[in-house]
């Protein structure tokens, strides 16, 4: 109980108000949680049911080897995705894992996490539907007009195509230009951005200086919803 109270206080400091646990049940969204037999879970974990909660914010304290990388998730933007993330975090799926990918392209600067195997191939053994953003700004200097700005501080789901969300997510370190094919479900706290900048500043390991594992190890000790 003390730990929950401490987390709630942290939310008040981070976002100026406390909404943890506040929500309204207005019918369960159909998330399309479906097992993926050809892609077994990287760690044993149950598949969530569709959520009742569709409003309210959830602070998630992510303790890493480089400092806290905490986020605030918004159910009103993506109730299925927030429910899934909290489900996995509550069951320790993300604990003791490494963020396996850092990018430094001019139009894509993100840190990708959520795969216990560290290979970009691991997931929870199921998939669910997209909850794609509709309010992103058009990306500047994009002749196609299809790309949008994923702003610094966004938390979004990685995927392998439409409706293939699982456990992997990415943290946007600098405004990035992408087609709006990735669910945005939260934002990084100010403290978390400092940690993300520290990891990004270390650069990328391997032969490709633009895409690969971060040189500064980003090990997730504990991912704890408040």
From TrEMBL:
It catalyses: [protein]-peptidylproline (omega=180) = [protein]-peptidylproline (omega=0). Keywords: Isomerase, Rotamase, Signal. Its EC number is 5.2.1.8. Transmembrane segments: none annotated. It is an enzyme of class 5 (isomerase). Residues 1-25 form the signal peptide. The keyword Isomerase applies. Pfam families: Pro_isomerase (PF00160). The keyword rRNA-binding does not apply. Residues 67-213 form the PPIase cyclophilin-type domain. GO terms for molecular function: peptidyl-prolyl cis-trans isomerase activity. Gene3D superfamilies: Cyclophilin-like. Belongs to the cyclophilin-type PPIase family. PPIases accelerate the folding of proteins. It catalyzes the cis-trans isomerization of proline imidic peptide bonds in oligopeptides. This is Peptidyl-prolyl cis-trans isomerase. It comes from Lentzea tibetensis.
